[in-house]
Design a protein that fits this description.
Layout lengths: L16 H6 L9 H16 L6 H8 L8 H8 L5 H17 L4 E11 L9 E4 L11 E16 L2 E13 L3 H6 L7 H15 L5 E5 L6 H6 L5 E6 L5 E2 L23 H4 L8 E5 L9 E14 L2 E12 L8 E5 L6 H10 L2 H12 L10 H25 L19 H18 L13 H12 L3
Parallel strand pairs: 1-5, 5-6
Antiparallel strand pairs: 1-3, 2-3, 3-4, 6-11, 7-9, 8-9, 9-10, 10-11
Helix pairs in contact: 2-3, 5-12, 12-13
Length: about 450
């Protein structure tokens, strides 16, 4: 049944003053006309349920009958603004508010955004990490993204959170071949992202944490002494002792490495190895403490083609036999083995962030086809996740209650509570969030009530 209303009244809600103040650090990155459109799109991305298309953002904010609706699409595919400049502003904001004075720990990982369509040039066929297992291989079509996330605690949430600030598109090999370019591996994009972050934060100590995809000798050697890399290490890695002192009368170039050391997998059966017990509060998502046995030492890691790299390796085994033995390495040989393991455990929050991005901010529901819009939309949604976590510290107070039920006990806030609090601020605004100073009745505009109605009825 059709409901008639005046189309001219659909000019949209004014942007909340809260949102304008929160986004002020990014104001100078856009022109004045583009900035007004950006505020509407950001407000729509926060309020819209389900898909995060431009049309969905306009429906929930109001300007559905605006004749210049194409201007909102052009913010993503034509307007002149740099996503890397926004990433720089975001990481400086997050570091200033959350990082403190110690080393900055940054996790990096890749994820597949499932997308189909012949017009999406950068997409490829990849292994689906969610649907695949050790014995079952599933392929999927999509875009590959490399995300750098700040691993820090939040004031309103216990534990560590992964806050993305720089997300880079890693196009498929077919994309590079069609354009006559050299295909960049994932580690090439990781190296460029690391060096970019080091230029943004030149006076801070940075520790990068990645999984086995980034545990390569070349990546560890490329970042040099400017940062620390912690990742997994193969049990058959080529490890060597330091070279012996050089005799002044010896001819030829100096030796780069000493005699080879035993492989790490041989140390598992060495009866003379001295294992040390280590108790971690969390291990592979378990809420209970876990006791592990570790052994650690320093060595020179060598691969043909690059100079040897001094590392500290840590070999971990489970006394209960629940997990296979695994090894980790750190390019800072002075870091304690327990600190290496505790830092690597932080990286597991990256997967939680990827899941929440899909569940609450609609990643994988975008429908852009142009290369510029594709390269901008997902990084913006990832950055918006970090901003919601940051803004939630200003909104969530002791008077707020977490969303729970009789069959679901929650003892702390989650990201769903954070984005719900932000939505309440945007829907209600200054006028309805507290008692007015006068006795005049506050009236919600009918258009806003209708959009709330649509947001509930078309939540999917």
């Amino acid at each position: 049944m059709a409901h008639s209303h005046d189309p001219s009244s659909d000019i949209g809600d004014p942007v909340s003053p809260f949102l304008i103040d929160w986004l002020e650090p990014f104001r100078s990155a856009f022109s004045s006309p583009t900035w007004r459109l950006v505020l509407v799109l950001v407000m729509g991305a926060l309020l819209a349920p389900g898909k995060r298309t431009v049309s969905a953002c306009l429906r929930v904010t109001g300007p559905t009958m605006c004749e210049t609706f194409s201007s909102y699409h052009q913010v993503l595919n034509r307007a002149r603004w740099d996503p890397h400049d926004l990433a720089r502003r975001l990481v400086l904001l997050l570091v200033a508010r959350l990082a403190g004075q110690g080393p900055i720990i940054i996790g990096l990982d890749d994820t597949i955004e499932r997308r189909w369509g012949a017009h999406i040039n950068a997409r490829g066929i990849y292994r689906d990490p969610v649907r695949s297992s050790h014995g079952h291989f599933v392929k999927t079509s999509g875009l590959r993204w490399l995300s750098f996330m700040l691993l820090v605690p939040l004031p309103w949430l216990p534990g560590i959170r992964a806050l993305p600030f720089l997300t880079i598109l890693a196009p498929s090999e077919r994309f590079a071949v069609n354009r006559g370019r050299r295909h960049k591996q994932l580690t090439d994009w990781a190296r460029q992202g690391m060096l970019q972050i080091l230029r943004w934060l030149p006076h801070r100590a940075i520790v990068f944490v990645g999984d086995s995809s980034f545990g390569t000798h070349e990546l560890a050697w490329r970042i040099g002494r400017r940062a620390t890399l912690i990742s997994r290490l193969r049990l058959d890695a080529n490890l060597f002792a330091p070279p012996p002192p050089r005799n002044p009368n010896t001819r030829g170039r100096p030796r780069q490495k000493g005699p080879p050391l035993p492989k790490l997998h041989t140390r598992l059966g060495d009866p003379g190895a001295r294992w040390t017990s280590l108790t971690l509060p969390r291990w592979y998502g378990s809420a209970k403490e876990k006791t592990l046995e570790i052994i650690s030492d320093t060595a020179l890691w060598y691969r043909p083609g690059t100079p040897p790299k001094a590392i500290r390796w840590v070999l971990v085994r489970d006394p209960d036999g629940g997990r296979d033995p695994q090894a980790f390495f750190c390019t800072d040989i002075d870091m304690h083995p327990a600190e290496i393991i505790a830092t690597f455990v932080r990286r597991w929050q990256v997967e939680v962030t990827f899941q929440e991005l899909r569940a609450h901010l609609g990643v994988e529901t975008q429908r852009q086809w142009s290369d510029a819009a594709i390269a901008r939309t997902t990084p913006v949604l990832c950055g918006l996740y970090s901003l919601v976590c940051l803004w939630a510290g200003d909104v969530l107070t002791t008077s707020h209650l977490s969303y729970a039920a009789a069959w679901y006990e929650k003892t702390s806030f989650t990201f769903s509570d954070a984005i719900a609090a932000i939505r309440c601020e945007l829907w209600l605004g200054n006028n309805l969030s507290r008692s007015p100073p006068h006795r005049k009745r506050q009236i919600i505009p009918p258009n806003k009530i209708r959009r709330m109605h649509y947001a509930l009825c078309f939540a999917t």
